[in-house]
Design a protein that fits this description.
Shape: rod-shaped
Radius of gyration: 34 Å
Order of helices and strands: HH
Oligomer: single chain
Distance between the termini: 96 Å
Number of strands: 0
Largest sheet: none
Structural class: mainly alpha
Length: 76
């Protein structure tokens, strides 16, 4: 009984190996594998930088500091 199971497994393995060898390019080469090769990808456009919150924006903080100061330089 064990001999029969080993024989069936060996036949299946041999069939799979022969099927893989018959593919153009082999399993690791171009054209081999389960899916056809994908065309080259275009470079993705860069996403715009995310907006900064007002407390993270150095320009906003400088402007806020300038507005809060009086002409003589002392805080408001």
């Amino acid at each position: 009984m064990i001999f029969l199971v080993v024989l069936v497994v060996a036949i299946v393995v041999i069939a799979l190996v022969m099927r893989a060898a018959a593919r153009p390019g082999g399993p690791g080469g171009p054209g081999g594998g389960l899916r056809p090769p994908r065309p080259p990808q275009r470079p993705r456009p860069q996403r715009p930088t995310r907006p900064l919150a007002p407390d993270d924006d150095p320009e906003f903080l400088r402007e806020l500091d300038r507005r809060t100061r009086r002409d003589d330089g002392s805080p408001a």
